[in-house]
Amino acid sequence: MTEHVRVAVIGSGFGGLGAAVRLRREGITDFVVLERAGSVGGTWRDNSYPGCACDVPSHLYSFSFAPNPDWPRTFSGQEHIRAYLEHVADSFGLRPHLRFDTEVLRTTWDAQELCWDIETTGGRYRADVVVSATGPLSDPKVPQIPGLDTFPGKVFHSARWDHDADLTGQRVAVVGTGASAIQIVPAVQPDVSRLTLFQRTPPWVMPRVDRAVSGAERALHRALPATARMRRGLLWGIRELQVQAFTKHPNQLGLVERLAKQNMARAIKDPALRARLTPDYRIGCKRILLSSTYYPALAQPNVDVVASGLSEIRGSTLVAADGTEAEADVIVFGTGFHVTDMPIAERVVGADGRTLAESWKDGMEALRGASAAGFPNWMTIIGPNTGLGNSSMILMIESQLAYMADYLRQLDLLAGSPGPGGTGRGRAALDARPSAVHAWNRRVQERMKRTVWNTGGCTSWYLDANGRNTTVWPGTTAEFRRATRRVDLAEYEVLRAPRVRPAAGAAAQEPVGGNEVTA
């Protein structure tokens, strides 16, 4: 049996739950949230490695419509963020809409009925609109290392942590030096016999000024919610002021580099190790990491830093690209995610029979980060060029939710507008015009040319296989909010379901006009 819904949301992380809340606030209850796992949380459910925490302040890394006065720390740990998302699901009545253990296998556009056919592991659905909120940090990327299958010990990615693996007294190899690795290393270093870190590129690391939030602060925020809003506003404003240095004046980041080097020098006294850990690119080109424990951990006698990527495995011997060898009992990959080649794109089939992955083979493009040409009534949350380098992604998500809400309002107006004989004109769909998508992305890429992400001299996960930055937004969150406040129908083609052919002698229906086309 196929269940037909107005909206199908894919994923139940911040984007999916945010979409569900917004739908209910818009008066839409005919929707489902399709989740491949058994609980909500998205990346904050999947990433449960030791030391996992957020590098955005708690009061900014939460929904504006669901403030939490009881964050226990200024930078929250994974368990607190996951508990917050469970609370959102409960307090906004989302449970009846959640479909757990329901992985989307294929989503195909039906041009005759103007809806999406969705095949999942939990049954089939039809939806007038699909909102993809799978997120870019959902599918781990593990490099193809020759000989990996010969390794006799445990191997796992940071986002799929093996909690049955006891690392106590083990020789552990950590591959990668991204945001996850710099949290894992200090968390496990005291327990392991030997830790070998394979570092292809050193990150810039700033101190993480984290502390417990006092009971008095929490009581104040509960009694006077305006104080929590002020705190959030201050955190937001500071980060908005930083944006120009990243997007227009990267040379102004030199002072930040000096602060990062001082942070390193305080913990790393060995000049040779300090040299291996010092980046040769402008700070901000890759994601700036926050930690006050990473460098002290690397300075411990049971830690080795190999300044080269892992290239081969021979049994329990790991060989770096520079020939360095290390023995290991456990390998932990902190090697990131499929960001510019999201697997969900292989499972979305558009109006012309091509998958979204095929449409994006030369690079991801979406109108205002949401709509792809040839994929009517399909929207993505945290789509192309919506990422941030210095602030909270929740701000971008909420802007996209406002765009989604207006998109649905426009569809209602189009479906309810008077047709022949004064009746409604039937179901409608919106398909982003290729010219509008390309124009939007030309403007984004033109602005990107001056940013530190393009000029800083590094290779990062912000760039796709063609060296094009399809990940980050080159402006402030306020700019993006203005750009996504309303749907401009001139940027879309209006599609309508085929009309019933009139009986003999009946008056013919008037042709579709303006920007509208018949599907």
Automatic annotation (TrEMBL):
GO molecular function: monooxygenase activity
Entry superkingdom: Bacteria
Keyword terms, alphabetized: FAD, Flavoprotein, Monooxygenase, Oxidoreductase
Pfam families the UniProt entry points to: FMO-like
InterPro entries: FAD-bind_Monooxygenase_sf, FAD/NAD-bd_sf, Flavin_mOase-like
Family of the protein in this entry: Belongs to the FAD-binding monooxygenase family.
Protein name (Swiss-Prot/TrEMBL): Baeyer-Villiger monooxygenase
